[in-house]
Amino acid sequence: MKKILIVEDEEGLIITLSDRLQNEGFAVSVARDGVEGFETAENGRFDLIVLDLMLPKKNGFDVCRDLRKNGNETPILMLTAKGETIDKVLGLKLGADDYLTKPFEVMELLARIEALLRRTNRSVSSETFWFGDVEVDFNRVEVLKNSAIVELSAMEFKLLQFLVQNRGNVHSRDDLLDAVWGYDAMPTTRTVDVHIAWLRQKLETNPKHPKFIQTVHGMGYKFID
């Protein structure tokens, strides 16, 4: 089930969009101001963000800019009540993937969401991904560093694949255990920490100061491209 975050302060629109998206099979979360929207997007895993431009506490431009600055690459569909071209251009320059001007038909919103998700799925499922001097071939389940094969266990590869495909998002240890190993974390488990350490040792240039597989203190881990 694809997860969508709606960042919107207009209660009527929240209800309309939430009900329709849930009926279409999406899991929906809602944030009612820019600060809450930014924090929810950073701390959760979402496939797409529907982001209003005019928000209390923090406007949509700032939310979009700060998410991209932090490496969050979740697709963003920006909603604006303004028809001025400069607002649309600025939103796209700050990292939004598409925009829709209010008022709009829900069918058009759904079409744009589906188009963005299709585009993202093609990107994520591509055969090869590079970061630094590392090349990951998902189809062949093969990792090379400086053109030399890196031996990864099956769980190390699955963990790396999940982090890469959800890059920019913060994942708690419980989330990673559930997504990669398939069970909920026990409070004392160190499984994720150990596997993260092994991946850093094998793939990072300086494992003690990792550039790509980063720790978010008190929250978990995220992959930065």
Instruction: Output the radius of gyration.
Output: 19 Å
What ranges have pLDDT less than 50 throughout 5 or more consecutive residues? none
Large-scale geometry: elongated
Helix content: 40-55%
**Count of helical regions:** 8
The run of helices and strands is EHEHEHEHEHEEEEHHHEE
| Proportion of residues in extended strands | 15-25%
Overall structural class, as computed from helix and strand content, comes to: alpha/beta
Describe this entry's structure for a reader.
Helix 6 packs across helix 7. The chain has helices at 11-23, 34-43, 60-69, 85-93, 106-124, 154-165, 173-181, 191-203, and strands spanning 3-7, 27-31, 48-52, 76-80, 98-101, 128-131, 134-137, 142-145, 148-149, 213-216, 220-223. The radius of gyration is 19 Å and the shape is elongated. With 225 residues, the chain is of the alpha/beta class. The model has no long low-confidence stretch (mean pLDDT 84). It is built from eight helices and eleven strands. The strands form three sheets. It has a five-stranded parallel beta sheet with strand order 2-1-3-4-5, with helices on both faces. Strands 6-7-8-9 form a four-stranded antiparallel beta sheet, with no helix packed on it. Strand 6 (128-131) and strand 7 (134-137) form a beta hairpin. The two termini are 25 Å apart.
